[in-house]
Amino acid sequence: METKKDEYHISFFKPTTAPARANRNLALMLVIIWAVAVFGFQILLRVLEKPTPEPTLTEFESVWANVENGNASVEEMQTFAQSTLTVLSKVFLKADDRAVLDNAFTWAVFKIANDETREELAKAVSTFEEKSAEITDITNTEYIVMRDNLSVLAGSVIGLVPGDIRMSILPLELKTEYENGYSDENKTQTPAVMTKYLTHNQSVLTDTKFLGFPFHYFYTAVFLLIFFVGLCWLYCVRTDAIHKRLSVNDNM
Length: 252
What we know:
The chain is mainly α. The chain folds into 2 domains: 18-49 and 207-245; 53-202, no CATH class. Helix content is 68%, strand content 5%. It has 10 helices and 4 strands, in the order H-E-H-H-H-H-H-H-H-E-H-E-E-H. The strands form 2 sheets. Strands 1-2 form a two-stranded antiparallel sheet. The protein has a two-stranded antiparallel ribbon with strand order 3-4. Strand 3 and strand 4 (213-214) form a beta hairpin. The protein is elongated and about 95 Å long. The mean pLDDT is 88.
């Protein structure tokens, strides 16, 4: 018996049999549903999103004009120092942005401190930098004592209360090179850097809680996984129904 040339040729996009066409249409439909569920939600997030500042940014903006002009009170300088330290505590800062805020923060701390405290602070920062370069083990007792003492000293200057989580990184952000000045370039860049890290896009999809999670997180991390498994199950069920309707014998 002679075999036809295309008898065993199978094409998903150009099926030659009714079962193949039905299978193609079903697969394409489910892919479209999946794509709408995934990418449609991302598009909806972008459409509804609204840039929303963190409270820290609002605090920074309320004192920035006076800080920039040199007319800030001690309380305003403390607010400025605390707000820059808040951003410095974020782990994903770019190196250039960190340098800008290190300058702003260090300058503010030394600007607030009185003469006696400033001298003590300068010595503590210099010693900590020198020892930090020599000590590779951060569990070293000498390192921990120096770090904690510097945290308490500088923290009291900018008004941090004991137990504030920012105290742990405070010593790492004080730089001797910035003690006596706030460069014009860094001063110009500070507002943009603060806005960059303290503004987040929010909407009803991100603010709504579902089962204890922000809705957008639950949807993408949990629901879409369940949805994908559901589509796979539906594909199997519908394929069996198509084969039964078209009298396809899988045992042949």
